[in-house]
Design brief:
binds ligand NPW, potassium, binds potassium ion, alpha/beta, ten-stranded mixed beta sheet, multifunctional enzyme, metal-binding, binds adenosine-5'-diphosphate, YjeF_N_dom, NADP
Length: about 450
């Protein structure tokens, strides 16, 4: 049971390929079931465990876990609605010598293990089965999902049948997109990986603590990163982004626009056509509070022509031509509405949408939300989940844009800069607790650094 940070994300198909390449499916199931049993024993204390087993190999994992728990002397019962249908699951079922209770009449237990369906779920659950799943979970103190909460798809975060909210999901062999993507992810609870030694390769990974560029003895303010924030109609938003850039670690932040007042560390200058010609500028952030009028259009055109690395957010995303050729490293930070507006609506998974957008616009995309997907034009993807829901407040996106500018100006390549900023933003939100405002989040960036 290991934390998932930095681990590859695999789809059902790539998981099956990894399984085939391994060759010994029976050994994999034995390992998976043993891993589930170990985790359950660690968390259950002396409490009885009830394992719900489905017809496929997810159910097979459940039977193996039940046998392992029994052998270890742990009180365990099994319930199922249908007989196993795969050879592996049948073999695992045959080794379970206790009774198999019908799902509809199964007595609850304090610890519930959901081994109904995993990566093979192909349609909604039978309504009566789903009802009993919910009944047993409601009566349990702890619900542990094997591989995935039964009812969610594997690859795109969709929910076919609403499962109970599990406390823990044990991802078998690899993390899957639905462990991270909403709405499915909310049913998984904490996600931990059971390593099956498959070492699958993937261009998609779970976000991990980044390697920040910390200052050293030779550092000066410009080498640490100079960020220019292009202001506009609503100076509050660009100021928030400016202060975020400072607190995320930029050595020098230039706010180009109206507005006065603290912090004194912020260098304020009015906007001018030549404002972005300073060769020391390592990143330009444009969009927070920019407005969408002709002035905004002119400023965006100047930023795009400047050749400086760019972070394009908020209003600027509404003025941008996604298909125009790029003259500089560029990071876009759209939320779902902005992705729809820029690239058109789509029912594809958030990972695929971010990847397609990045390739089409030749940029790094930070597709924001409760699950944030960062994609590069070369197909690399990293996904950040478990962000505080309290981030759903005005101005938190401006903070992310400023932090992204600081990371880009520090010299990190765009994909790494975007990843570092998203991680920093998420951790800052964690430190803020509940009911914080964007200004608090800015302060917390320093504490995370
Ligand atoms: N990959 C690996 O490395 C490892 C994988 N392992 C485990 O294997 C799991 C995948 O197993 P799996 O492919 O047998 O699929 P699983 O999710 O058990 O169910 C599919 C079965 O249910 C059926 N069915 C589908 N939907 C249904 C519905 N709504 N209502 C009713 N029936 C429905 C479907 O039949 P269908 O009718 O669609 O043909 C099929 O019979 C994976 O999650 C992990 O736990 C580990 O053991 C070891 C390493
Ligand atoms: N429910 C949520 N849980 C976690 N993070 C969220 C949630 N809703 C929004 N966020 C994050 O909060 C920020 C909101 O940005 P955005 O929508 O641009 O707001 P604004 O433009 O008002 O600053 C993004 O970083 C997004 O990922
Ligand atoms: K399951």
């Amino acid at each position: 049971m290991i934390p998932i940070d930095g681990h590859p994300i695999l789809t059902a198909a790539t998981m099956r390929a990894a399984e085939q390449a391994h060759g010994n499916l029976s050994a994999l199931m034995a390992q998976a079931g043993a891993g589930v049993a170990t985790a359950a024993r660690r968390l259950a204390g002396a409490s009885e465990v009830l394992v719900l087993c489905g017809p496929g190999n997810n159910g097979g994992d459940g039977y193996v876990a039940a046998v392992e728990l029994h052998v270890a002397g742990h009180p365990v019962r099994v319930a199922a609605a249908t007989e196993p249908r795969t050879d592996l699951a049948r073999a695992a079922r045959a080794r379970w010598t206790g009774p198999v209770e019908p799902l509809a009449t199964a007595r609850p237990a304090p610890i519930l293990i959901d081994a109904l369906f995993g990566t093979g779920l192909s349609r909604p659950l039978d309504a009566v089965h789903a009802m009993h799943f919910h009944r047993l979970a409601a009566a349990a103190r702890l619900t542990i999902a094997v591989d995935l909460p039964s009812g969610v798809t594997t690859d795109d975060g969709r929910v076919l049948t609403e499962p109970p909210r599990c406390h823990l999901t044990l991802a078998l062999g690899a993390v899957k997109p639905s462990h991270l993507l909403q709405p499915a992810a909310r049913y998984a609870g904490h996600v931990r990986l059971i390593d099956l030694g498959l070492s699958p390769a993937s261009v998609a990974t779970v976000i991990a603590r980044p390697a920040f560029r910390d200052p050293g003895p030779d550092t000066h303010k410009y080498s640490r990163g100079m960020v220019a924030l292009v202001g506009g109609a609503m100076p509050g938003a660009s100021e928030l982004a400016s202060i975020a850039a400072l607190r995320a670690g930029a050595g020098y932040v230039l706010h180009l626009g109206d507005g006065t007042g603290p912090p004194h560390a912020l260098v304020r200058r009015p906007w001018s056509a030549g404002a972005l010609t300073d060769p020391r500028i390592g990143a330009v952030v444009i969009g927070p509070g920019l407005g969408r009028d002709d002035t905004a259009r002119d400023r965006l055109a100047t930023a795009l022509a400047s050749g400086r690395p760019l972070v394009i957010d908020g209003d600027a995303l509404h003025l941008l031509d996604a298909d125009a050729p790029r003259s500089a490293q560029t990071i876009l930070t759209p939320h779902a509405g902005e992705i729809d507006a820029l690239f058109g609506k789509s029912t594809a998974s958030k990972i695929d949408r971010a990847r397609v957008a990045a390739a089409r616009a030749d940029v790094v995309v930070i597709f924001k939300g409760p699950d944030t997907v960062i994609a590069a034009p070369d197909s690399r993807v990293t996904v950040s989940a478990d962000a505080s829901d309290w981030l759903s407040a005005a101005g938190t996106g401006d903070v992310l844009a400023g932090a992204t500018g600081a990371m880009l100006a520090s010299g990190l390549p765009p994909f790494e800069a975007a990843t570092a900023a998203v991680w920093l933003h998420r951790e800052a939100a964690r430190l803020c607790g509940r009911s914080f405002i964007a200004d608090d989040l800015v302060g917390a960036l320093s504490r995370v650094r």
